[in-house]
From TrEMBL:
Name the UniProt record assigns to this protein: Peptidase
Gene3D superfamilies (UniProt xref): Metalloproteases ('zincins'), catalytic domain
Organism: Aliidiomarina iranensis
All residue ranges annotated as the Peptidase M48 domain in the record: 62-245
Keyword Cell wall biogenesis/degradation belongs to the record: no
Phylogenetic classification of the source organism: Bacteria, Pseudomonadati, Pseudomonadota, Gammaproteobacteria, Alteromonadales
Length: 274
C-alpha cells in the first residue's frame, strides 16, 4: 500500500511539471484542463443560470451593462476579443456578478445599484473577465484535483496505521491543505483579478481611481468579520490598499485613451437609484 501511495504522489508530481502555465501577471500556475472543456462548462453553467434566475428584459439596464462590456471587450487580447460575448442582467438584490469561460457575463441588479457609476461597474466587469483571462477556474479545479490525489495517496500510505490514528492524521491534513493551499489560492485569484481588471478598465477609458471606491462601497455593505487567514477573499482593507497603490501604474493607460478622445459613454440608468 505504501508503494501505491508513492506511485500516486509520483504521478501527480509529473502532472505538476507538464501542466504549468503562466498567468497574465506572470504568475506560475497549474492548469490540467483544456480551454475547450472549460468553455463547454461555462456555456452549460450560463444556460442553467438563465433558467434558474429571472433574466431582466429592461432595455435600459441591459444596454448599460452591454455598453461597459463592449468598451472592455474592445481592448481585450485577440483570443478573448474574438469571442462572441453574451451578457445577461438578472433581477435580484444579490451583490454578485460573474464572467464564465467561453464568453458569458452575468450581472445582478443588486450589484448594479451598488456601483455608483459606469466606472465602478467597469471595475467589477474587468475583475470578472480577469478571472477568465487568468484561467482561475481551471487552476482551482486542478488544485482541488491535486489535493484530492495527494490525500488519497497519503491515506493509502497510512493503511497500516490504527484506524483512529489514521482518521486523525487525515482530518488534520484536510484542514491544513485548506488553510495552506486552497484558501490562499482563492485569495491570490481575487487579488490577481483585481490587478487585471484595473488594467482593463483603464485601457478601456474608465477612471481607475473608482475601483478602490467600489470596494469601499462593498465593505460598507459587508457584515462578516471572518479573519483573512480563513477567507477566500482578501480583506476589504487589504483590497482597497492594494488597488489604491496600483492606480498610479495604470493612470497613463487611461490618460492615453482620454487624449485620443475615445472615452466610453455609458450613462447609469436612473432606475438604479431606486
Amino acid at each position: 500500500m505504501k508503494f501505491i501511495g508513492f506511485i500516486s504522489i509520483l504521478v501527480f508530481s509529473s502532472l505538476l511539471l507538464v501542466a504549468c502555465t503562466t498567468s497574465p501577471t506572470g504568475r506560475s500556475q497549474l492548469n490540467l484542463f483544456s480551454g475547450g472543456a472549460l468553455n463547454s462548462l461555462g456555456q452549460q453553467s450560463f444556460s442553467e443560470m438563465k433558467q434558474q434566475e429571472k433574466v431582466s428584459n429592461d432595455a435600459e439596464l441591459n444596454g448599460y451593462v452591454q455598453c461597459v462590456a463592449d468598451a472592455i471587450i474592445e481592448i481585450l487580447p485577440d483570443q478573448y476579443r474574438s469571442i462572441e460575448w453574451e451578457v445577461a442582467v438578472f433581477e435580484s438584490d444579490a451583490i454578485n456578478a460573474f464572467a464564465l469561460p467561453g464568453g458569458h457575463i452575468g450581472f445582478y441588479t443588486g450589484i448594479m445599484k451598488l456601483a455608483e457609476n459606469e466606472h465602478q461597474l467597469a471595475a467589477i466587469m474587468g475583475h470578472e473577465i480577469g478571472h477568465v483571462m487568468a484561467e482561475h477556474s481551471s487552476e482551482r479545479m486542478s488544485t482541488n484535483l491535486l489535493i484530492s490525489g495527494a490525500l488519497l495517496g497519503t491515506d493509502l500510505a497510512l493503511s497500516d496505521r490504527p484506524t483512529e490514528q489514521r482518521a486523525m492524521i487525515m482530518a488534520a491534513l484536510g484542514i491544513g491543505t485548506q488553510i495552506a493551499v486552497a484558501l490562499p489560492y482563492s485569495r491570490t485569484h481575487e487579488s490577481e483579478a483585481d490587478e487585471i481588471g484595473l488594467d482593463l478598465m483603464a485601457r478601456a477609458g474608465f477612471r481607475p481611481e473608482e475601483a478602490p471606491k467600489l470596494w469601499e462601497n462593498m465593505a460598507a455593505q459587508g457584515s462578516g468579520s471572518t479573519p483573512e487567514l480563513l477567507s477566500t477573499h482578501p480583506s476589504p482593507t487589504s483590497r482597497i490598499r492594494e488597488l489604491s497603490a496600483q492606480v498610479p501604474r495604470v493612470m497613463p493607460l487611461y490618460e492615453a485613451r482620454a487624449s485620443a478622445g475615445r472615452l466610453p459613454q455609458c450613462p447609469r440608468p436612473r432606475s438604479l437609484n431606486n
